[in-house]
Amino acid sequence: MASPSSALARPPVFRSIGRSILLTLPIALWSLLMFTPSFRSGGRDLAIGAVLVVVFMTSLFFLMMRTGETYRWRRIFFVALGFLFPVGFIASLIAERGTMSIPISRMVSGDTPFCFMVTPALILPAAFARTIVFPGSILPTASNPHSIAVMIGLWFAFTLVLGKAWCSYACFFGGMDEGFAAFGKRRRLHRFVTKYGSILRLIPWAILLCVVLLSAALFEPFYCIWLCPFKTVTEFPAVRDLETALQFGVFVTLFAGLVVVLPYLTKKRTQCGFFCPFGAFQSLFNKINLFDIRFDREKCFDCGLCQTSCPTVALSKESVREGKTLLNCMKCGACVDACKKDAAVWHLKGTPVGVKPERARLLFLYGAWALATMFGGSILANSIATMVHWLPLK
Amino acid sequence: MEAGPKGPEPCERLKWAEALRLAHKAVTSVTGRCAENRYTMREMAALPLAASAGEALVLGLTTGPVCLASCGPVVLPWMLVQPKGIGPHSRQLFLFLAARLAGYMVFAAVAWLVGAAIPRAWSGRSWAYGGIELLLACALVVYAAGWPRPGRAPSEPSPRPSIHLVQIGQTPRPRPSGAVALGFLTGINLCPPFLVAGVRAAQLAHLSGALFFFLCFFAGTAFWFLPFLSLGFLQRTPAVVTVARMVAVLLACWYGFSGASLLIERIING
Amino acid sequence: MRRRILSILAYTGAALTLVVAASVPFVLMGVFSKAIAHAGLHIDAAYSGGTVARTIDRGGYKIVVYQPVKPRLLEPIEPFVQIVFEPADALPARMNEEIDLDGDGQPDVRVSFSLPSDPNAPLRGDVAALNGKYISLTDMGGESFSRMVVRAGKQIVVRIPLNRDSARR
Fold first, then answer.
1. Which of A40, B95, B179, C143 gets the highest tally of CB atoms within 10 A of its CB?
2. Strands C94-99 and C52-57
3. Residues A126 and A201 grouped into a single domain
4. Interface residue A349 vs chain C (CB under 8 A)
């Protein structure tokens, strides 16, 4: 897949192979540690999936070290995660109940797997009424291992490390619109996005506030019921009346528009950057995260390449002049790789900007890639195992 | 609680302050804090009114969260588009609550005049509820309308100041008409506690009693809106104001959809 | 000096971040999960059915009667009472049972359904209200959270809507 800014990006600066291997070693060992149980007791299909994932993740990290680039290699993993997650998930639904739709019986028995995207909507009812407005189960059960406590615990642990980089290294939905944005080279609606970007990137905050208010007022997960585009490729409440039919129509329309068509036309992650309320919520954690991306004003000559390359319009002329990104930066590394003057750099808060940026990058990437391997890698392994299972292999 | 004796003239001639004092006395006597429970003839005539006032106040306080859930999504974005500061916020909130009180008084009068016909008119509630939600949606859109035109610098004034309340880069000028419209429409919004209060008010002997009942009910619910004053401390960056306007439009879409679907369902089901 | 101290703190924080990342699958995720589990939270009654009022033992199977569930704030559900028959395998093929829901000794509803032999086949049933507090259901499946006769795993879940006037009391 072509990178939208590949023609504009600076040429990679290669690190020696030996040094790259040395830097990759911790990730290789971590991957082996994470997937050893799958080799031993997961069965043939899962073992194949685990081997492929270990090789895949380790290779990508090696390439990150070798080329000094982040965005291109991270995107390969992320898009693979986005497209393969539904494969494994839908296959498990079909195998279990023969349909992607959730019957109401599963909701009342607490068997709905918890999705982290509903987390902001749960806060007010939980705070004031100690009530979780989601038809799941608090503790894991045999029929629902993805319980609320497990998934929120996982999400919180990830967020401590990644901040909003969750949207670049963990979210198994974000890879879809990033993937569709990578198809084709021609950027359409570019002027529209440039002109209205300052407004478009505020929409997720408005949706977040609406979702929180209406979820608290109606005591239901408003986003899941009315607005989630990814219901189209995961599971959705069974259509049983006009209202649920309308809801399904909204899901499909949002998916087609925000995840497929608009990313293809604009080369931006339109669902993530211009709609997702969970992304807005996750942005808040950038305030406490130690890593960010900064701009060395002595090197920067305001060419605007960074803004063009940013997939979520997390940069503006004003913010670049101030030497920093906006709050919704996902730390994907696109601007750093695009900058020809090395003015955009990885940065550790509390250290001088532009001094040993590679060290900040490495410290960030080790944490992010370790978690990506653990979480995204296991999803990939399961999806590959599903595909291997259905392949006509003797 | 039974309605008071018919035509107790001293009730109507009582001043509101004395009625409130007696309401407090009635409530405290019920809770057992008052050692002596003796009343003059005049006080006995006023007691049902006082007890009704206490009941209304308690009803308002206990059902306030429902009112907040119903009206809060309207108030929050509206308050966020107001300029920073306790002064402007207090004025706008006062106007909003005053208009809401006016809506309460209108409903109280209607409820009392309709009286026993309310249960029969219950089925008509969907029409009123749906219509009010549609009007609320329109009011939210009107007062949140006015995006900056492409190419216009943020500091340029809006070409249509009558409805362009807010532009990115400018702190908005408060419009009393917005507070009044939104306040009145939320005031006549037929949420469940409102209807319960209406049924109770209709049972009182006099129109003034019904109005006073709703005044006390309003006081109980208004208490829950006081925390909105704290929004006055929030910094009004252009982003905050823009997000607030977007929220208003999105909520208008929800209210509009909710109201329209209610009306359509009534038309289909009869 | 200040810059040096800040840099030391920053790198220490970054190192701790790596430690946190490494501990996620082994320690941290479990700690946070247990914290959530012990936070005293419960699933909304519209989904869980509320709290158990009492259990009626019928020998081979039990009938669990729940407390009435009323909508919170503007929750778009009717007030209802949930009854659970469990285990489904031990139920007679044709159920026709009168049940006292409010504990006053008088039966309030008659629940009747036929269990299909295939556990995955859809279930439909009837509920006849024996007094004005409850609303009868005819040929009900899983229409809404307030009105249902469904098989949920090893249980048969029945939800009977309350008459709104009696729910208000």
1. B179
2. unpaired
3. yes
4. yes
